[in-house]
Every structure is written in C-alpha cells, then in structure tokens.
Amino acid sequence: MKKFMPVEELARDERFNQITQADRMADGRNALIGEAEKSRKSNRLTPARPDASEAARALMHGIFVGEIQALEGAGRTCWDFTTGEEAPFELKLDMARQAWDEARHVEISLKLSDWMGSEIGQYAENTVLFQAACSNDPVLRLAGVNRALEGLAIDVFTTMKEFGEIAGDPYLEFCEDWMLADEVTHVKMGSDWLRKITENDPERRKKALEFQGIVDKMFSYGGSRSDSEESSFAIARRFRELAGFTEDENDHIADLGMQALNERKAQLREKQAAVTN
Amino acid sequence: MADPTKPRASFAPWDRRELPGSFSVEETARRVGNYKWAETKLFEVLGGWIATVPELDIKLRLGTHCYKHAWHAELWHKRLPELREMNPARLTVPANDALVRFVDAMTEPEDASLTIEKLVGVYRVYIPHFISAYTYHLNNTSEITDMPTIRSLKFILQDEFEDWRDGEMLIQSLLETPDHVDRAAAHQAKLEKLMLEAGGIAGHGSIGINTQAPQGALS
Predict the structure, then answer these.
(1) A71 touching B, CB under 8 A?
(2) Chain A residues close to B67, C-beta within 8 Å
(3) Quick check: B186 contacting A, CB < 8 Å?
(4) Which of A4, A133, A148, A190 is most exposed by smallest CB count within 10 Å?
(5) Among A68, A72, A78, whose Cβ lies nearest the Cβ of B43?
(6) Is the CB of A13 inside 8 Å of chain B's CB atoms?
(7) Could you list the residue range(s) of the whole structural domain that residue A260 is in?
(8) What tens digit of pLDDT does each residue of B141-168 get?
(9) A33 within a domain of the structure (yes/no)
C-alpha cells in the first residue's frame, strides 16, 4: 500500500455523494437568500429557527462524514510516516487512539442521525476535512487536523449540545457532551505535539501555525463560525482553553471567522446583484 | 478474632504458581522486542487501510482494532526497559527477514475491491500467529519472576481473541460466492507459506517447536 493517499481515492459505498469545498462554494444556490434568512436576527442553530429540524439533520450528517474523514486521517498518520524517523512512536500511539475515538464518533453520529430521522447519503459529503489531513509533514498534519479541524469540532459539538439542551433532547445532549470530551483531548494532543516537536525548530513551528491559520479559515466555511450572531457557531472559548488554545489564539480564530464572514457576504451581494440584473 | 501472631504458609494452598520458566531475561527481552515490532506493523497497516475500505462497518472495526494493537505495542515498549533494555528501539526489530517479507506481502493489498485479502491477511494469518506465540509464552514463562509479562500477555490475549473473532465474522460476511472463498484461501495460503519461512512472530521457536532451550532457562 502506498504512502500518502489522495482525497479522490477515499473508499465509499454507493450511498455517499462526495463534493469538494470548491464545489460547495461554487454552488449558486448558496447565493440565494430566502425570506426566512432575511428576517432572521441570528444564524445560530437554535430550536426556534423555522428550519431547525432540517438544519440539525444536515449538520449531524456533516458531523458524521467529518468523523469518517477524521478517522481516516488519524489512521493514515499511523501509516504514512516511518516510526522513529519521520514521526515519534508515541505520536503514532496517540493517532491510533484518535482513530478509535473517531470510529466511536462515527457510530454515535450514525445512531443520532437515525434518531433525528435522516439517512446516510441524504446530504453531500464535503471532503475538505481529509484534504487537511494530507500534508506530508506530520507537524502540519497535526496543526491542520488536531488543532484546526478538531478545534472546529469543539465549536460544533458545543453548539449541538446546547441545541439538545434547549430542545429538551437529553439523548442528543448526552452524546454531544461525550464527543466534546474526546475532541478536547484530541486538540490537546495536537497542541502538545506541536510544541514538543518544534521546540528547537521555530521555522517549522511558524510554518505549522500558518498552515493551521489557512485550515482554520477554510473551516470557517464562509463565516459560519465566529463571535457574530450571523454565524451558525460560536467560538467555544472555555473548552478551547482546556485543549491548550491561548486567549490570543482564540481571538485570532474569531477574527479569521469574521473575515471569512465579511468576504462571503460581499460575494453573496455580488451574486444577488447578478441575479437581480 | 484471628490470632495476628499465628504463622501462615507463605503460599496459600490454592496458589500453585511455579518458579521455573523457559525464558531468561535476555530471551524475554528479545521476544518482547519482536512482539513490539510485529504489533507496531499491525496497527500501522490497520490505520492505513481504514481509508481504503468502502464497507462502513469494516472501516469502523479497523479503527478500533488499530488502537488495540497500538496499545499492545505500547505495553511491550514499556516492558523493555524493565528487562534491562534501556534503548527499546534496539530490540524493536523483526524476528528475521522472512517476517519482513510476510509483512510486506500482507500490507500490499490497497484497492477498494480487496477487502477480503486485507482481512484474511490480518485475521486468518497474522493474528492467529500472535495468539499462538503469546499463548506459548504465557504457558512457559516463570509464573513468579515474570509476572509483569504474564499480566500484559493476558490483557493482550483477551484483545487478540476478540479481534480474531470480529475479523473472522467480517470475512465470513464478505464471502458471498465460491470465487470469494477461493480468493480468501489462495491469499491465506500465500501468506501462510511466508509465515512458515519466518517461523512465527518471534521467529523459529515462537511456539517452542524447532528450537532448543535458550541459554539461561530454568526448567
């Protein structure tokens, strides 16, 4: 088996429909703002939203496929790098542990999707998460996956946990809380390894943090995550701090989210103007 | 109330553990190093295969099993310094070149259509050889001097049996035609021949056959 698998080769059964981030952003339907969206004061996912059920099901499917890709990414880190030479033995042990955790998260997401009334393949699978796990440098991979992607998971799971709490769904709240505990552990793994491996290599650390910034912005999905009420998810600062993010780092991620949100709004305005004309 | 000054037998009547064992400290360290290498190769390939199998249930099982074998490798890694090997990497080696050839052949299948071959290599050949080597070790080491190894072997064997059963059931669920059965059997035979050459995960003598009592053994 070769090292470094391209995202196009991810193995799936016929129920899955894969799209790239570019496909998603190029979808013209995303530019159309409906009446419900225009009148909404906040984009946060709450049970009060008229489209709450559908939005929660779509998000849960997104979590499900994201967990599959996180599982595959952690597994590939066990395989792609030579033990001792390219990646420390203990780092690989952590990645194997993460693979087990992600496998459980897929199982949890499957049960929750069933509970919420959706099916595998009902929504498209965006493969952007695995793309972040394809770096040839294990440090960049940890920065992209464990700190950026798993950091996003902290934000998303916090939102879903609150959604379950407000909606009076203890099943959802219970599961999200358990997954949240694992994600904090994974982000901490990433933070710890990043510090340890680049202790005497500031250039490599800088490169890894820059890569994390790119992935963080990519995972902000056009501003879906920021401190603004216009974003679907807030920055879960408390849990992020537990995972090793500093206040400055959280502020930086919030800024990236706002930047992405404003860029997306500008794009939407352009597309709206094009539709109107 | 029991008399606290009354002498008791040092070993309770139900404690039948024996002192003699077949392995010296050096031989135990050699075997443990081989185990760590073999478990490491196993968790690495299980991790790599996750993205290559389209069957969702199998994908998830591989993720779970990947961690279990990583944990086994970690247990052996921690045992090595306790066996006077302060540089665990020195003994983390394959038992012989034939075992490397076996692992290379086992890890070769990559295409999404080769799930049967992937599972057969691990669950019908490699893991059964772990079970046999670990069982031989468990049954032949000193029950008193080498208790830490025994404790790890027992934990690990529990996992190996469960994983073997999981894997075997997955294989059976994939065998839908006589051609599938032939594929599984052919791949198993190919790998088993390589393992025959290797003699097992700790080399010849993995299960006590074709070997002389190691130097320093007390039996």
Answers:
(1) yes
(2) 96-97, 99-100
(3) no
(4) A4
(5) A78
(6) yes
(7) 17-23+39-276
(8) 999 999 999 999 999 999 999 999 999 9
(9) no
H or E element, residue A126 = strand A125-126
Q: Does B46 touch chain A (CB under 8 A)?
A: yes
Q: Say whether A78 and B63 touch across the interface (CB within 8 A).
A: no
Q: Which positions in chain B touch A119 (Cβ < 8 Å)?
A: none
Residue B164 lies in domain: 25-198
Answer yes or no: is B206 within a domain. no
CATH, residue A142: 1.10.620.20
H or E stretch including A81? Answer: none
Q: What's phi and psi for A128, nearest 5 deg? A: -65, -30
Q: Tell me how crowded residue B145 is: count the other CB atoms within 10 A of its CB.
A: 16
- Do A224 and A232 form a contact (C-beta atoms < 8 A)? yes
The ipTM, to two decimals, is 0.92
Q: Does B89 touch chain A if contact means CB atoms closer than 8 Å?
A: yes
Q: In chain A, whose CA is at the least distance from the CA of B57?
A: A107
A168 closest CA partner among A43, A46, A44, A61: A46
pLDDT in tens, B68-94: 999 999 999 999 999 998 999 999 999
Structure tokens at A15: 């129920």
